[in-house]
Amino acid sequence: MASKVEEFGLFIDGTWSSPSPAKRFETINPATREPIGSFVAGSPDDVRRAVAAAATAFPAWKAVPAPKRGDLLLEAARRLKERKAEVGRIVTREMGKVISEGLGDVQEAIDFIEYMAGEGRRLVGETVPSELRSKFCLTVRQPKGVVACITPWNFPTAIPNWKIAAALISGNTVVFKPASNTARCAVEVVRIYEEAGLPAGVLNLVTGSGGVVGNALVSDPRVRTVSFTGGVDTGREVYVRGAQSLKMVHLELGGKNPVILMEDADLGLALDGVLFGAFGTAGQRCTATSRLIVHRDVYDDFLGRLTERLDRFPVGDPLDPRTGMGPVASADQEKKILDYIAIGKKEARLRYGGSKLTGGAYDRGFFIAPTIFETTHGTRISKEEIFGPVLSVIRVGDYDEAVRVANDVDYGLSSSIYTRDVNRAFRAMEDLEAGITYVNAPTIGAEVQLPFGGVKNTGNGGREAGSVAIDEFTEIKTVFVDFSSKLQKAQIEDGPGE
Whole-angstrom Cα distance, residue 227 to residue 112? Predict the structure, then answer.
């Protein structure tokens, strides 16, 4: 007899509960299709209750000194560190990334929570001189109020904590809506803060669909900021809906990230980087290497090395430490990627892979072979985000052509160049249209102490991580202190009789 699937509720005002009656949905292990857990499909009423709890909790949480808020974040990080192995395994079972990356997902969450805890001692403003005597000018940061954090499935502990930790240290209260297919990971994220002693109502969790829970959150006038990571089309809808009530909407969207491989590159180093960048997380990172732009002088040599390495690249059980790539995250993901592979077969030359993996354990999950297409710039697979283990390889004649190809897409998140020429490396830092540029490293591997985000359709200008992570969650207040004991008029000259 099959074991009963564990059920989880909503977390509102410090209490786990399951509204009755409530519709439920399950998440599954993409490697085996076994159920992971059962979750409440939240309703607009659930969202209203969560927002009300956050609004009620806001004044008291705002009044907590920021260093004390930092102490609580440090306690959350400590508890997550103690449970890293357990939570990392949950990430791998529910999302499908290999266990080393599942653990890395959790480590990134730990690192960022600790980093944000330090912001409790900063929350930096500025002081500037006044144009008048006996007058002091400064700025301070204040929290916005209730914020909505809407997160994707590909980094189910790291990205939620990018948003939640930054929002909390700034003094905001949060309603968190995770991706439905990684709801179990979201439960662990919330439990960490609950166990660390976060006051009731400061962090609330409502699971459910974007069309119901997400729309209700974005439309609620009490929510002053929405932080969203996901697809471009959904991001546009969130942006427009939020604009109707003039709230701040931060969008972190897609990418079509290039690696430029010049003729003087260290090909061995580049080979390791391209393999990891293109096929790590089964290509399901917004920073994944989806285009390889190769100088003609090393094109054949490098592509031969790459396909040879893929012959020894193990795809399978993501909990096995020897596995290089696990399944894609869901049946929907599998279908979308296979549809793009079918398009690629019509418009480009298939060099490697190009199919769903079948037989044995593969039949139980959503496994796709690492896939390489040789293509020309301008094909759909070379310009549209696929979000899977599909790499488009494009031959170019020189650096200038490589940069033109790299920039001629709708996205601008991450980019990379492999070269031994320091002058060319510095040119690339300036020339590439992207929020992130790597030199002699793949397009993935961001660190929490630096800003993360992009240009063009990758987002709407904000950045996550780094010290600027608090920008989307704080208001800047300008303060003037006049201690002259008389009326002073800025920009106005003294007139007759004054």
Answer: 16
Indicate the residue type of 248: M
Structure confidence by residue, pLDDT tens digits, 25-75: 999 999 999 999 999 999 999 999 999 999 999 999 999 999 999 999 999
Distance CA 65, CA 61 (A): 9
What is the rounded CA–CA span in Å between residue 6 and residue 9?
10
Asked if the domains at 7-253+459-478 and 257-439 fall in one CATH topology, the answer is no
* pLDDT for 494: 65
When computed from its CA atoms, the radius of gyration of the chain, rounded to whole angstroms, is 25
What pLDDT, on a 0 to 100 scale, did the predictor assign at position 497? 44
CB contact set of 444 (below 8 Å; sequence gap of 6+): 276, 277, 280, 285, 287, 288, 289, 414
CA–CA–CA angle 375, 381, 384 (5° rounding)? 140
Q: Give the residue extent of every domain in the chain.
A: 7-253+459-478, 257-439
Domain 257-439: CATH class, spelled out:
alpha beta
Tens digit of pLDDT for each residue in 325-355?
999 999 999 999 999 999 999 999 999 999 9
Token representation of residue 46: 């659930």
Q: Which residues are catalytically annotated?
A: 252, 286
Q: What angle do CA 431, 436, 441 make, to 5 degrees?
A: 95
- The CATH architecture one would assign to domain 7-253+459-478 is 3-Layer(aba) Sandwich (3.40)
Q: Which residues contact 492 (CB under 8 A, 6 or more apart)?
A: none
- 98 half-sphere exposure, CB direction, 13 A CA radius: 18
- H, E, C per residue of the chain: CCCCCCEECEEECCEEECCCCCCEEEEECCCCCCEEEEEECCCHHHHHHHHHHHHHHHHHHHHCCHHHHHHHHHHHHHHHHHCHHHHHHHHHHHHCCCHHHHHHHHHHHHHHHHHHHHHCCCCCCCEEECCCCCEEEEEEEEECCEEEEECCCCCCCHHHHHHHHHHHHCCCEEEEECCHHHHHHHHHHHHHHHHHCCCCCCEEECCCCHHHHHHHHHHCCCEEEEEEECCHHHHHHHHHHHHCCCCEEEEECCCCEEEEECCCCCHHHHHHHHHHHHHHHHHCCCCCEEEEEEEHHHHHHHHHHHHHHHCCCCECCCCCCCCCECCCCCHHHHHHHHHHHHHHHHHCEEEECCCECCCHHHHHCCCECCEEEECCCCCHHHHCCCCCCEEEEEEECCHHHHHHHHHCCCEECEEEEECCCHHHHHHHHHHCCCCEEEECCCCCCCCCCCCECCEECCECCCCECCHHHHHHHEEEEEEEEECCCCCCCCCCCCCCCC
